[in-house]
Amino acid sequence: MNNPTPSKRITLIGVGLIGGSFVLDLKHKGLATSVVGIDLNHDNLERALERKVIDAAFDHINTEAVTGADLVIVATPVSTLPAVCRQLSTVLENHSVLIDVGSTKQSAIHAFQKYLPHHLPYCIATHPIAGSDRSGALAAQFGLFQDKKLIICPHGQEDSESLNWVSSLWQTVGAQTYLMSATEHDGIFAAVSHLPHVLAYAYVNQIATHPNGQAYFDFAASGFRDFTRIASSHPAIWVDICLENKNSLLALLSGQQAQLAQLATMLKNGDADALYRYFDQAKQARDAWAALQ
Amino acid sequence: MNNPTPSKRITLIGVGLIGGSFVLDLKHKGLATSVVGIDLNHDNLERALERKVIDAAFDHINTEAVTGADLVIVATPVSTLPAVCRQLSTVLENHSVLIDVGSTKQSAIHAFQKYLPHHLPYCIATHPIAGSDRSGALAAQFGLFQDKKLIICPHGQEDSESLNWVSSLWQTVGAQTYLMSATEHDGIFAAVSHLPHVLAYAYVNQIATHPNGQAYFDFAASGFRDFTRIASSHPAIWVDICLENKNSLLALLSGQQAQLAQLATMLKNGDADALYRYFDQAKQARDAWAALQ
């Protein structure tokens, strides 16, 4: 594909793993000449300046921070997007393209529609599938999006040139772009991302609050390590995601409870054949998935 | 510590990841001159012979296979241990030390007591904490037990020389040995190993059997990969373990159901503060554990 038009200036709101890594790569590829970072956390801004993730820093959204921005990236926890859009509505220039990178997309589009209705053609909802249990500007890294999936959820009123430009920027940093509706997106990620995070938190809490919890942790090994890795994820980010996508998540939690009830019955009955079929079905499905990665 | 007395001859019943890796290391350290392998699977025996995991092969337990064995290692799925002990009772020589390496220890000791009562002083229940989702003779590897924990569950009638010899063998292949009661062992491993395996199987089955399952798998990423790794574990091995330890596991499954019910309530109420405390408690506990590994 053609090289995307260089983005002369970027404003990054929320200087963390995702936004920080994206602008590092865009600079490295020559697609950004300067990045203005906006973050509530002064220490985080200092680190981002030191590591040259950003070139100027502000602790709140104002005219100076967004003037001249070709691209404004909102990479704050998803629950803050409505307030960010409301604040941007009075300062955003007409030519600036706005993207978010959050894990819930129906809520992102609602925020665009409610607070930036006149800017809607230039608001693009994106979601890079490149999570980590690490967070903050220090977690920003080159190449985070290489060979990762990037989902764009069109709301139907996008300016096509802006949409394609955003898509080309993500492809330039190595991502494979996919289009899907925000509803479909939120259903899929409730299942493959939000639910396992919640289940990992639930499992760790069960162990941690058990009277024998300390002995349990003493003998936990590699299976435990991998199963619980995502329970080290940033709590505030995940509270936001879970609440923004709570209907999908509640349905899935109910489905998980049904699975556990089924398992308990098989165990109580000592039904080795049923347990074998159940475990084997899961192993086959997981192995088939892993073989394609 | 002193070097353990060389084990001139070993009989390994069940030539897989755990038993195969143990004898590979014992040979490498000069502690075994020959290993007789017994396994139901002829292909598996062929591979074990090719890779010099074993030096002779039998497809069933008989006098020839165990005659002259200084050490007999039972490394078959845990539910088979009673039948293995029953068969050994007519062929095992008085001087042979017998160990098992299974993941449930109350059931192991019951099998020793029931089928080998006269041999009990020379029966030692051990459990190396070195799992993998891989299995079979081809999965056997050098150094699997280096810096891993090895638990011995005394039944109280061990010959102390045999007990210390077995302990020294495991230490020689790199393991750190711990002693605890079989009851305590089974409670701990139900919590940190058996429960997460069952939860991983349950989660993968929920996704795999969902009408949108294929789309889910298409967008599953690194969090999913780690959370579900143990669902690729051998189904028959885990059916056995779960049934042998079903009382502990059922109590823990019930505890997990209570965690999920609590989470669903917090989500329904949109209680961000409670969710934050819940997620943060899990993160703190998991981070504290990880910092010690």
From TrEMBL, chains A, B:
Alphabetical keyword list:
Oxidoreductase
* KW Oxidoreductase (keyword) present: yes
| Pfam families, A to Z | PDH_C, PDH_N
Per UniProt, residues of the Prephenate/arogenate dehydrogenase domain are 8-293
Determine if Oxidoreductase is one of this entry's keywords: yes
Q: Quote the PROSITE patterns the UniProt record gives.
A: PDH_ADH
Q: Please state what the protein is called.
A: Prephenate dehydrogenase
